[in-house]
């Protein structure tokens, strides 16, 4: 099946998309399968084309207001007929609730913008204040995000009022009309200003306020909620005198006047809600009610009193509640609950505040974390069904199943290869957790939770292990996190890396034990490179691992940078970013970032970045060291279409599937796709799928050795690995799943030449022996071991001249058809082109030159394979360095025959050498030549057969830009009749062992 292309019209916003479920389902199944759905070349989507995949901007019109979703509304008013008008802030609309409690959109499309005109086509930018003048039936709106005052006249036309003031307005959050004048809370400037109802000059009434919010006018006295000082400020609009009326509220936000008294709504966000009655002359206050049903009563943002009922708009609860004048007799009249997160299919589902995304391994299911909605959802692309897996709207910490589990802002998640286990960075719970998506059961991994209840912003820092119950600071052995936001999983799935955001540190978690340790970061805010704790970050938010687990990339949010950590020594450098906020594409040294939040490694090996500051998605090309735009005009909105025209409203988590990048558009409550068709590389540039694990400590860097053989006496072949130069000569043995079966040192532990390995049945007992030789820096001492690391068959011998210290290579196979494997030895770089063949007694039975004996000194890699199925192995050689000229030879009694002139496995002019192996890759009974690229080019593995000197397949085992070469081996470790290809880096790489899938 070819590739699939889904075409969406440009600039189609979410609320206008209506695709039949069956048709959509077919398209999604094709997407997962990776096929092509082409219309015509004229409609083919271009790189960066944005479409809406899942969700809607807002929902509920036409039904009862009690079943509709509001999105953190901040202002409302009522007309004389009992109709309520709501500034539905993050839905970017003005909603109307009529006297029959039916809800509709009074003005706006749901898209962020500032377009004037007919009210249904106008756009708004986070409106927070609204007032109605019943005399002329004009509405005035504080359009906070646009820093404008706008009027909806009685004819239904939206008009922006002109402001003639050098300072202008900055995020106005409240507005009152009195006669021909408007009083405006110019919140960003900390002042109250007066302006004509037609616009014009601003007159300062009061300055020096600290976040003025809602206000009420009684006569000439204006009473203002000054949130920053938690007080009510009294301002005489005639004399401009200012005084504090009451100064001891907790987070006051809303105020109104009724029959000689002020009423105030206050209370700590998410904890409790209070209604107070205040004498407007003396400031004496009386608490009428304190309630803790914070699912709905959360962050009251506006209030008024009508017909002896107190109406309170709950910004945090996204609802409208009414009370009697004593703060009792609670009744909800609007708002289903916070953040629309309805289950259903693509036509009905809502995704409220999507924070991060992850796909199952087969690409059939997408997992979505609702950051502020505190749930994990699953969308099945094959059945077109969205369901909740775990969590509840109310944040808390509870391990449980389904809706009994509680989260508190899961910012990042990563899926394990089993397709069931999600690892979660549960930010406000200060824990790292797991979720079994097949059952909905959560479980605890590490992190002590909230240990400093007196200061939520400072939860402490301590390395340690799991402490499931919340505890006080200073308890030894407990791991303390402070708002962990990023998480990454190593390829062997034994280790998690965590961005501990408010601790300004990057940390490591051993999954088996939950034990943490520091990778980098001093804990202090800063922008210093260095090693480990000498480096500093400023709000590290998310992280991504390189394909070989050698490097960790950090979105350093408030340094406006991407940092790079070499996990070999935990050294931190700055990859891109100057420390200044802005937007500029260019080289890594010149590009400018703006609040980078989410970073992911793409299938092309490059980094993709979503930015809260620039409202863009960007690409960091690691090969060219250049940044480029993927999507975003820089304007806030929800417009689909071409990359330079598309708009976002807080793009966050990302995930890749086929040729699409899926992005959680947080404020728009949408999952959107970006077409990467021309950016996702050809098959040649895509890293091959397969299993991976770390054969040694993941922070190590160097070259490695690998072999395959049945060395433990069971029915399956094992994986044997060795170290490169600079490391002790440790041999490790693994099964096909990467599980450690044992290890030993082939030579003295202090030797730093590394160890190269081969396997062969030298004694014809049906099981393979492990054969070793040191690398550069030691003489060619051949040793033979059984699968437990015991010397076997022969005490060992010295090959070549016994003195050469340039390192040797070894292979083993039955090259003379005597029923026993022989040992083949070659010299590394600096040695001659000798190939010696030894029997199990160490006797030389053949000795020949594979290349020119007078000039060749580039070293030889060697392997054996049976290319014709006759039961006798041939010898294949390739230069360790130099042109990739591969040759193979056959032994006969008293003769070594060169089977052909050889061939160049890669370009003849390439001088980085090759690594050779053999195995029955296609299961046809004869073995193929498996050639790994050397140093100085991207890593490739090519497969050749005896007769075809063009590769029958080419595979990329590691990401674009990894140029240290690749060591190859082959063996049928899963007993399916075909040899699997196994790789490790040849130089300057982590111990990333890969089993490549066909």
Automatic annotation (TrEMBL):
Residues 446-465 are annotated as: Disordered. InterPro entries: 6-blade_b-propeller_TolB-like, Integrin_alpha_N, NHL_repeat, TEN_NHL. Keywords: Repeat. Residues 59-113 form the Teneurin NHL domain. This is Teneurin NHL domain-containing protein. Residues 446-461 have a biased composition (Polar residues). SUPFAM superfamilies: Integrin alpha N-terminal domain, NHL repeat, YWTD domain.
